[in-house]
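Homework help board

Subject: predicted structure for assignment chain

Our instructor gave us this sequence and asked us to write out the predicted structure in token form, then describe one feature. I got the tokens but I'm not sure how to describe them. Can anyone check?
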Amino acid sequence: VQQRLVRAGRQLRQRQDERLGQLATRLQREAGRAPQEARRALDGIGHRLRALDPARVLERGYAWLVDGQGRPLTRAGSAAPGQRLTARLADGSIDADVVSVHPAASDQA
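My token output:
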């Protein structure tokens, strides 16, 4: 009886050690996933932020127009002939004088 109890105890201990090893492996694997997933999510957010960066828009050929006070010009009807504007481009800026203004039909209403 004593030998069976000793053997059963060893077997139980062996199964517990195996299970503990499996759990430790799983814990290490899962612990490694969380930072990777967070890093991927952060990379995705960074990519979206870079796409929205005004400098990136300028690199695609657009210009940012501002009036003499530095206010953005968003509508043609906001400009007047003779007005000085600054066009900010990807690699610098250009000062320009408005010669004429041609608002879209929807802006004239």
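Reply (TA_rk): Your tokens look well-formed. For the description, you could write something like this. Residues 2-52 form the longest helix (51 residues). That's the kind of observation they're looking for.
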